[in-house]
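Follow-up to my post from last week.
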Amino acid sequence: MGLLSDPYRRRALSRLILRLNTPLCLLSYVAGLGWFLALALPPVAPRTYMSENAMGSTMVEEQFAYGERALSYAREFAGHKKKAGGMPVAWLEKTMWNLGLEVYKQPFARTLPFPDETRERYMVKGTNVYGILRAPRAASTESLVLSVPCSEGQHNHQAVGLMLALASYFRGQIYWAKDIIFLVNEHDLLGMEAWLEAYHDVNITEMQSSGTLGRAGAIQAAVSLELSSDVVTSFDVAVEGLNGQLPNLDLVNLFHAFCQKNGLLCTIQGKLQRSDWDTLPAYAHSLQTLLLMVLKQGSGRPQGDHGLFLRYHIEAITLRGINSFRQYKYDMSTVGKTLEGMFRKLNNLLERLHQSYFFYLLPSLSRFVSISVYMPAFGFLILILILKALDLWMKLSKCDAGPAERLWDGDQGAAHAAVEEPRPGLLTLVPPLLICHATGLTLYFLPVLGQHVATQHFPVSEAEAVVLTVIAIYVAGLALPHNTHRVLTGSGSDRGWMTLKLLSLLYLAMQLGCIALVNFSLGFLLAVTMVPVAAAVQPTGPRYLYAALLVLVTPAVTLLLGIFLYQELIEYPVSVLECWQLFLQAVAGGLLDHYLYGSVVFPFVAIFLYPCWLLLWNVLFWK
Amino acid sequence: MAAAVPAARWARAAAALLLGCCGAALASGVQDQAEQFFKSGHTNNWAVLVCTSRFWFNYRHVANTLSVYRSVKRLGIPDSHIVLMLADDMACNPRNPKPATVFSHKNMELNVYGDDVEVDYRSYEVTVENFLRVLTGRIPPSTPRSKRLLSDDRSNILIYMTGHGGNGFLKFQDSEEITNVELADAFEQMWQKRRYNELLFIIDTCQGASMYERFYSPNIMALASSQVGEDSLSHQPDLGIGVHLMDRYTFYVLEFLEEIHPASQTNMNDLFQVCPKSLCVSTPGHRTDLFQRDPQNVLITDFFGSVRKVEITAETISLDPNLSAFESKPPKDELAAEPLKYAEQLPVAQIIHQCGDIAVLDSVFLWNSMEETSAHDMKKCKTILIDHFLNIYSYKFFKEIKLCVLYKIGEAGI
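User reply:
Got it. Predicted complex:
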């Protein structure tokens, strides 16, 4: 405290911050970026380990040997699906019933806010079928879920087959302490959302469903299975859920442990981990994996059907069987054994998975970066905003003190000029704030509300209308009358823009800080782009350069660049036009995620981040 | 109690008379054998077996306890003399692929659950409070007989504990723990209340040696599976059941006990060596400084079995009625050197322990008769008296006794 209450020391400190502001900011940015890039290094990312005592090791004897039965179920399912022209509800019910499960079906319906063109659906009607295997010697107070999406076309038959074969095998075992729910959900995430809402007896989206009749207690963990070939070469695990939520790391560890036990190849983000760790290519490889995870998590989209479970505090992962050109293939029995082992270990759980990390990044399946290690990278970036805000604050308070009481002789011309000007009230800041937030609200509400008006006046479909309206409003925000203060005070004063910039910097710091706590990746991606430009922007100097930079870091362009980077990382490069197409799809997808599942990315950007960015735009064109 | 004392005295007097009558002609060899015969000073055996861990993944702790239960029962301690405390029911756990069994060996070789297991305290009844109450006998009058430790000063007690522990404590049920000081104080209370003759304490837990290092009451022998700072390790991983079946130390103790039969002459020194570091990984420890006898002369069956000594002899043996080999009294001159002083509180146990068989307790109703009876009888009376005092009389009365004690010690000339 002495440092701040002693006027001389305080002066020295403030002088240090003012004089060394730009170098400190630069240093902080480099430190933040460097810290992030170092996360993929082996000493920073320790090996994963199982924390949950109840699951312990992989000590279990898997006896599942019914791979052939799984395939015959799969063929039968495919035949009935073709005949029914959709999900063969009756056949599934009958088959599950014959296996000795308690079978229920749940019809649901949902009309989308606007047509989804990528998946070609608008008014969706479907049925979920699920069978409960009651634990023979336990009260039905806890359960596990094995879910399989029944997708369009020829996909996922083998997953249904394997699920039925596993159900038949599990039925014969007596060691179950938790009920097991075998769920076939139609229309992937929509069906899953309908089922989860009905199971937990809530209605948070506008889903219409009949509710579920059969319940099996609190769900402790869930595995979603996607499998489209008779043999697999590897398994890919998807962890990122809605809003960047992650399952407990122990569930990922469990899968990895059983993969290793059965000699199964397993990947994350489609990347196989390298055996060496200390070489440069290995580092680049794990950095790629890490970046892919950051991009996927930052998008806030569920990366599989498991993603919606996480909202209900149910740990869940999606497993995808991959059949590539590798020589060694694994049959259904090995896959079934892996799942059997996982379920037996999950069966041993006594409480929800909570011992291990909920916030982590994975540079490979066997290494993890915990929240305590990656947060400083973000902290350094936010420090820039704080430093810049302090700088502005001190300049402003120096002006207040007047020339006679000045403690130091600043060399900033702006500060000198500001002294002579009349003090503008805070009133001048209200119009830009209001306008920016009104634009944000328009961006949030208008596209979906005004889609029918748009389709009447323009030759576009509803989905296109929504996306184009979003882009139109977004761009129109730049051209709004941002010079209202001139009407009030005559001409833009230096104090005016400095106060506005101070406000927007603190506003930005608060927003990024909040979102990084929920979704680190999103916060970091936005911070790494927006923060340096936000700190630099001012109405003096090379204004057009600042304007170009500011446009370059707007969230929409960040999304575009993110898509481009993602395509590069998955080694599927796209041209600019394709990238634009993907961008349009991503905007529509982001809106749908929000309206269908409750993703917060779109409202966060529209209502908070975009207005904040507009405030910075205001600062730039203050004079 | 008052009615029981004269009856016991009559019985003893009659026995002494009988022995005295036929003790005229004796070969000295047979005499020695007979003295050996009475070497162990206990008349009954008790066992308190405690598993303090819940949950399926602690299967091994239940198996540990049940394997000791199996051994003591096989060697003759009946269920009425065993207080078995199991914090969880593994045999009926839904995760158990083999219901109604608890195995101690891989491949289902040995089922320690057996056909007849009488669990006295189960699941949430296994608490520190209940455990201490069982030991000290301070239990509500409504407690059924099977849940009590009804031992006396001629009882040898085996106390076996297993669970998760640390330096100086043993965890009970995830919610509480017992410290080594609490345990030592409980044993002292047992000693003061004459609830045991000799006590064997075995603990299989991490840092087990820390649990016995605070003991200060006499006649206690203690064993632990590991030293302070060491972990005790599990053994017998079984893929079928999916857990570790036993802990290393108890596993080898069980292997050892399986070889014991009621007539075995195996002694405690063999038990100390049952699990060398090469097998246990941890270093088992033991403590014998409080114990009065040489461990070499202590049979395993003194604690693990309820062996009635029967020797059929054709010889006539005369027994010295004052035979007191088992009285375990320290040399008298050591006592004499100690100056008399006022103690802070009534150190009943200390006085009894130091004064050996000198009758030091004055009493309103039994003193005179005590002076005339044999030393052995006096000791019995003394015990009864102390029990009586501890249970009934107020602190004020205690003060008076203290004075009497000092007076009597002075009178006896020591």
